[in-house]
């Protein structure tokens, strides 16, 4: 009870974080890590508190000069190692942040596959929110052989505004664009995941929306989020196929 009284604030924050995350994992609304943001300040406070307790030097009661010197050296090296570890983590975070620039929206850490493979775990605003249309424009400008591009874009922008007459609005039910003389397909990964990934309980979709013709034409990368392997990518979120 004494421990609970002294650590009431930390215990309250921990219970809030656990309760909020537990409820969030059970809800069917899985459209972005942003919904967990209310817990972030408490996680930071708890992490800082835990670090402080971990890194705080321990005071040894010494009854001799030798014992005091030995204790001081032990405390110095122990603290130095802990702060070297913290410095390494900060440096790692800095390098990781710089290396993924400017694809911050699609960021996943290395355990999650990194910025290029995070779509295997989650999409929508966790990975693809239509942020790569300008990169698709740049790709189209640098590939003159792609005279026409079937575009199935998940976003609010207009492909024709950015790409001009090259862009032809497309979707799975229209079939293989190669049959219409269009040999390039650019499709948002969020759309592909919605069309191909296994369905959860209470969800359904039409067969013509499942991009089965694309799956037949292009081999799957396998594993979680088994999407057809793209020939190119615009940024991280638009997969480009040569048909």
Helix content: 40-55%
- Structural class estimated from helices and strands: alpha/beta
- Major beta sheet, strand line-up: 2-1-3-5-4
Distance between the termini: 68 Å
Number of strands: 5
Number of helices: 8
Radius of gyration: 26 Å
Largest sheet: 5 strands, mixed
The mean pLDDT is 88
Low-confidence stretches: none
Question: Element order, helices and strands?
Answer: HHHHHEHEEHHEE
Give your account of this protein's structure:
This protein has helices at about 1-5, 10-25, 40-55, 65-100, 135-140, 160-165, 190-195, 210-215, and strands at about 150, 165-170, 185-190, 230-235, 240. By secondary structure, it is α/β, with parallel strands linked by helices. A five-stranded mixed β-sheet has the order 2-1-3-5-4. α2 (about 10-25) crosses α3 (about 40-55). The chain is elongated, with a radius of gyration of 26 Å. It starts with a helix and ends with a strand.
């Amino acid at each position: 009870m004494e421990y609970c009284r002294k650590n009431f604030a930390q215990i309250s924050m921990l219970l809030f974080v656990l309760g909020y995350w537990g409820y969030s994992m059970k809800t069917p609304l899985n459209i972005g890590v942003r919904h967990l943001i209310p817990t972030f300040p408490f996680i930071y406070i708890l992490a800082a508190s835990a670090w402080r307790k971990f890194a705080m030097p321990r005071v040894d009661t010494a009854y001799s000069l030798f014992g005091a010197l030995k204790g001081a050296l032990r405390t110095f090296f122990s603290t130095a190692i802990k702060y070297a570890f913290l410095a390494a983590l900060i440096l790692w975070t800095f390098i990781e942040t710089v290396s993924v620039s400017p694809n911050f929206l699609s960021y996943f850490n290395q355990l999650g596959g990194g910025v290029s493979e995070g779509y295997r775990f989650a999409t929508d605003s966790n990975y693809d929110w239509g942020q790569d249309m300008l990169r698709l424009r740049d790709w189209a400008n640098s590939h003159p052989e792609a005279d026409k591009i079937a575009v199935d874009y998940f976003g609010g922008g207009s492909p024709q505004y950015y790409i001009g007459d090259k862009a032809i609005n497309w979707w799975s039910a229209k079939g293989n664009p190669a049959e219409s003389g269009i040999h390039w397909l650019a499709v948002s990964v969020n759309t592909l995941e919605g069309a191909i990934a296994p369905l959860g309980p209470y969800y359904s979709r039409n067969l013509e929306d499942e991009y089965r013709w694309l799956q037949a034409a292009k081999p799957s990368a396998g594993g979680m989020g088994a999407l057809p392997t793209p020939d190119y990518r615009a940024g991280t979120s638009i997969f480009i196929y040569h048909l």
